[in-house]
Design a protein that fits this description.
The chain is mostly beta strands and 142 residues long. The chain has one helix at residues 116-120, and strands at residues 5-11, 13-18, 23-27, 30-32, 38-40, 44-49, 55-57, 60-62, 75-80, 94-101, 124-131. It is built from one helix and eleven strands. It starts with a strand and ends in an 11-residue tail after the last strand.
Length: 142
């Protein structure tokens, strides 16, 4: 790991069909680093997996592929659009979204139709944080 970076484990957010309720069940996670010395690294990618899946992070939007992370981002939460996945639960019962270290991502087509993505990473994926100093006073020197 390069100087000024740390690696942490980030929970994988999921949006899965629940046969007992015949509805969708959310498992969403938030990272709030706003009062810390860390920011989300651009070594990460926002990964969204699933059929008819729409997930949002910050001001970025991506559907079914990797999206870059804006520099200095200190807050993120994952939201799934509930209009997208309910009708195809027999083909793709779960959708997943996670901010994760891009070099650790390996993709398999079976991730789309099975819980394999979540189980491969044991529900968590590595994520990189940058040591981030934000100076609000331009006359102050470090």
């Amino acid at each position: 790991m390069a100087r000024g970076h740390i690696r942490v484990m980030n929970f994988i957010s999921s949006y899965c069909y629940d046969a007992s309720t015949q509805g969708m069940h959310y498992s969403r996670w938030v990272w709030d680093l706003t009062n810390t010395v860390y920011a989300l690294s651009d070594d990460n990618k926002f990964v969204v997996i699933g059929c008819r899946t729409l997930a949002f992070i910050g001001n970025e939007l991506d559907v079914g592929k990797k999206a870059p992370i804006p520099p200095g981002l200190q807050y993120h939460r994952v939201l799934f659009d509930d209009r997208w996945n309910t009708a195809i639960h027999s083909l793709s019962p779960c959708s997943y979204a996670v901010l994760m270290e891009s070099s650790n991502l390996t993709f398999s087509e079976t991730y789309v139709t099975s819980p394999e993505f979540n189980t491969t990473y044991d529900g968590r994926a590595p994520m990189v944080l940058d040591w981030f100093r934000q100076c609000l006073d331009p006359n102050l020197e470090f």
